[in-house]
Design a protein that fits this description.
There is one protein chain. The chain is built from no helices and ten strands. It is mainly beta and 113 residues long. The radius of gyration is 13 Å and the shape is globular.
Amino acid sequence: QVQLVESGGGSVQAGGSLRLSCVASGISFSERSMAWFRQAPGKRREWVANILASGTTSYANFAKDRFTISRDNAKSTVYLQMSRVRVEDTAVYSCNILGLNTWGKGTLVTVSS
């Protein structure tokens, strides 16, 4: 059974940093491409970043130069390092295995001014 468990969310002031983690199980993690998405209150879920099995990364425009996606295949974990966060980054952040409709419960990030 494929499972994703996110953690690392919390409350942070604008301009601060957070690191989110997502542990995957039930898959050959090193062979899969992963992504982070987010959903702000009252808004649709939106893509944040991808990291392919090769390690190649890509980012939504709002995430470029502020967020960094990375992975540790030995730990079956994908990370999202968030820096210089903004109030508008407030959302539930979830990870996803590209190509699979499997989602964790997400982790809430709240940014205050």
